[in-house]
Amino acid sequence: MNVISTIFSWLNAQLLKMQWLWDLVELLVEKVFGLSMDSRIGGSVHFFIYDVIKIFILLSVLIFMISYIQSYFPPEKTRKILGRFKGIKGNILGALLGTVTPFCSCSSIPIFIGFTSAGLPLGVTFSFLISSPMVDIASLLLLMSFFGAKIAIAYVVVGLILAVIGGTIIEKLGMEKHIEDYVWGAQNADIEADEMTRKERIDFSKEQVKDIFKQVWLYVLLGVGIGAAIHNWIPQSFIEKVLGQNNPFSVLIATFIGIPIYADIFGTIPIAEALVAKGVGIGTVLAFMMGVTTLSLPSITMLSKVVKPKLLGTFIVIVTIGILIIGYSFNALSFLFI
């Protein structure tokens, strides 16, 4: 068992945490740039270079793998599969489908429109809409590389639970009439997807990597830059005062700080990493990440063009309450994860 544990620890350190990259960047900062790792500038430069390269490497590999799997499930096939399930089973499947679609909230909305116009239950489509930007396989492995398996798995599980519960509530409320009329009238060709060759799947996966890179690279750089600033320049006493566990409003503040920020999970992880290092509670950090990925102002604005105000308000209230419950619960049970 000790040998297996040692091998697993080594693989985790070298493949997910990329200790080899940390060491290389440390040499670059100290020997080439002539900066001390103990200085604010040196620490910030190391944080920025290491996290950017690490995220881009993991992102490229993971998106390629996920896209290759996704090539077996084109929209036509996915709609047919989801159409077979009703009620809670359909909501669970819709939420799970979101885990294999590595999109930001705005990118998920066109798929949401397609599913709705195809006649899928509203609860299923909203479960997908909540889970798609919040949790996916790539975010699971990225979170593991930064925070470890316990926190990563917990984040994905509670995200899926929130997506299922949110979709179920919306379906029980019978809010189909609050979808804009043009959505129901959208055309959906019911055609069989052509079977792709192995080369076509590889080409498709490469294109997905390129497309998602174009969407997220700026947000990754901004997220890492903010994380570097928090990690090395903002005093820990200030962070703890605003977002520390002694502040009963920390989860609420973190959630609403995240809403104006438009980014995906990949851009929020470096900020979350820096906040955890400053002593912010894990529940507060998770609430911030969920607020950014699910309730960003651009995505809410886009969604307002698809659903009517009552349904939009219901969606926002359900997700916000769910995030707050998750945040405060994780803070109370943080001893299980740290």
TrEMBL record:
InterPro entries: DUF318 (IPR005524), UPF0718_permease (IPR053166). Keywords: Cell membrane, Membrane, Transmembrane, Transmembrane helix. Its main location: membrane. It is a multi-pass membrane protein. The chain crosses the membrane at residues 47-69, 90-113, 151-170, 216-234, 246-263, 275-300, 312-337. It comes from the Bacteria. Coiled coil: none annotated. It is found in: Cell membrane. Pfam families: ArsP_1. Belongs to the UPF0718 family. This is Permease. It comes from Tissierella simiarum. The lineage of its organism: Bacteria, Bacillati, Bacillota, Tissierellia, Tissierellales.
